[in-house]
Design brief:
single chain
C-alpha cells in the first residue's frame, strides 16, 4: 500500500492552499471563514475534474508546458486584478457564488507545482489511492484557504487592503517565475 501517497497528498494540499494566487483570489471574496471554505471546496472540485483524467493520460500527451504557461497567465491576471482593485480602493468583493466560480475555474485550469507533484505521485499508486490522495490534497487546501478567509475577517479593512496589495504582487511574481 502506498501510504506515502496519502501523506504527500495532505502535505502538498496544505502547501498548495497558501500559494499566492489562491490568497489573491480569496482576497476578491467577502471576508470570512465561509469565503475561504467555499473557494477551497470549489477549487478542489475544479482540480479533481481535471486531475483524475490527467492522472490517467499524463504520459500520453506532451501538454505539461502548455498547461504550465496557461496556469501562469491565469495567476498573473488574477494578481493584476487584485492589485488594481486594492490600489484603487475599489470594493470588488465576490460573494460566495462568485467565489465558487472563480475557485472552480482556477482549480481546473491553473496547474501549479504542487498539483503537478500530486498528479505524478497519484499516478504511481492504485486508482483508489490516487483518488484518496486527491481528496486529502483538497482537504488540506480547503483548511488553509478557510483559515486565510477567517484571518482576513479578523484584521481591520485598511490592513486587509494592504495585505491584498502584497499578496497580489507576490502572486504576479510567483506566476511570472513559472513562465
Amino acid at each position: 500500500m502506498h501510504v506515502y501517497v496519502l501523506v504527500a497528498g495532505l502535505l502538498l494540499g496544505l502547501a498548495h492552499g497558501i500559494e499566492p494566487d489562491h490568497l489573491a483570489s480569496i482576497s476578491l471574496s467577502q471576508r470570512g471563514f465561509r469565503s475561504g471554505l467555499y473557494f477551497g471546496i470549489s477549487h478542489g472540485l475544479g482540480f479533481a475534474t481535471i486531475a483524475i483524467p490527467l492522472i490517467l493520460v499524463i504520459n500520453a500527451f506532451p501538454v505539461k508546458q502548455l498547461l504550465s504557461e496557461a496556469a501562469a497567465l491565469i495567476s498573473i491576471a488574477v494578481g493584476i486584478l487584485v492589485l488594481y482593485v486594492s490600489v484603487r480602493g475599489i470594493d470588488l468583493e465576490l460573494g460566495p457564488r462568485g467565489s465558487r466560480g472563480l475557485g472552480f475555474i482556477q482549480g481546473a485550469l491553473a496547474l501549479t507545482p504542487t498539483k503537478v507533484l500530486l498528479i505524478a505521485l497519484a499516478a504511481t499508486a492504485s486508482i483508489f489511492m490516487g483518488i484518496a490522495s486527491l481528496l486529502l490534497f483538497a482537504a488540506g487546501s480547503i483548511l488553509v484557504m478557510s483559515i486565510y478567509g477567517f484571518a482576513r475577517f479578523m484584521v481591520p479593512r485598511n490592513m486587509d487592503r494592504a495585505i491584498s496589495v502584497l499578496v497580489s504582487i507576490a502572486s504576479i511574481i510567483y506566476a511570472a517565475l513559472m513562465l
